[in-house]
Amino acid sequence: MNDIADKVLKGDPRSIAKLITLAENNDPIASDAMKIIHPKSGNAHVVGITGVMGSGKSTLIYELTREYRKKSLKVGIIAIDPTSPFSGGALLGDRIRMMELATDDGVFIRSMGTRGMLGGLTSAVYDVVEILDASGSDVILVETVGVGQAEVDVIKLADTTLVVLVPGLGDAIQTIKAGIMEIADIYVVNKADRPGLEQAVAEIESLIDIACSGKDRKTPILTTVAKQNKGIVELVSEIEDHNKYLKKTKMFDVQRRKRYEAELVEIIRKRLMNFIFDESKFKGKFEDLIDKISKKQVDPYSASDEILGKILK
Amino acid sequence: MEKKIRVLVAKPGLDGHDRGAKVVARALRDAGMEVIYTGLHQTAEMVVKTAIQEDVDVIGLSLLSGAHMTLFVDVTKLLKEKGMEDVLVVGGGIIPEEDESKLKKAGVAGVFGPGTHCEDIVKFIKKNVKR
Q1: Which residue range forms the structural domain that includes residue B12?
Q2: 3-state SS class at A277
Q3: Residues within 8 A of A (CB atoms), B 30-69 only
Q4: Which of A5, A132, B69, B90 could form a disulfide with A36 if both were Cys (CB 3.0 to 4.6 A apart)?
């Protein structure tokens, strides 16, 4: 039997926290524990919250959580912030906006650095979702890093994806439409007390008209002022409606399959990269090849053959 | 893969002076650590619960109101109660010399007053982190 997995399934906060750390550090104890966790997961509704920097994602999560807690639902929160590519360190400050939740036993918050992953998520996030799910969370809110155009991995992870915007982005909405504007299940225009609300909503609407033509569900736009708790009840009910829609149309299974596919790809990528870059037999070789590429003694493709050839054979 | 040191930087009590805490948080980040910053007005219970969920290796407490003998000690007491003595606790702020030894006895491993160089805090943490 696996001790830490058992404790996680019983909802023990310290074991949950420790297992997340082990998963983040690619510890073999975690991969063993996940064998027990995975079959027990899959019940929680996973909601991804993405959007531009400063759009109020953390505050929105705080207010959503308070609403879910009124319904006595248990909430898991994963708050992701960027890891510095230079120092490898990270400043994880999303909790500042969620302070009041710190002593609520029905809420588990974990801050994570991206640790080199692009796409707005972090490598271990799939494990963390399963851990929080299996340990009893009814709803899991995943806050991505503040996004620009390409950080769209969250749609594979989340059952429901919220894209959070604010008034006053103006033409910027037009330019970002190719990225995050295509991924929303629900649009949220937060800070709706600011000037420019009508214009922002109109611009999103015109994008939706194009994107949703011929589809049976039109992506809704909700307006909120998270700081004043305005529009939160409506947002929670819209999220629940989307969950019902997924289940009614069997899209739910399609969505979950996407998540597991992304998870499998990520685990393979991670293990392969660790094998190549952390195994001692390749380590010296790798440095040596970079030297040779720098001196033009070898080209990068031939160099990659020298490493991959040994694995792919 | 090298394990990252995770640090909780917290400001217990009622003073609103968080410049120091933020400077230290940044320095620890630049030293490659993952720093969770929680903001002002934390109770000991909030600090310890956050430390549990975030599974931190280090707690850094900052306080400039003079209540360190109560609030820092509340945190170390609560950690002891929860069997979390393996978390390294350090503190900073306006702390009179005569209190330093008392705090160390109570489980605050390092005390850093005004004028401390950030790199000394980084060195201290890297040397003393217990897990």
Answers
A1: 6-128
A2: helix
A3: 30-39, 41-43, 45-46, 49-50, 52-55
A4: A5
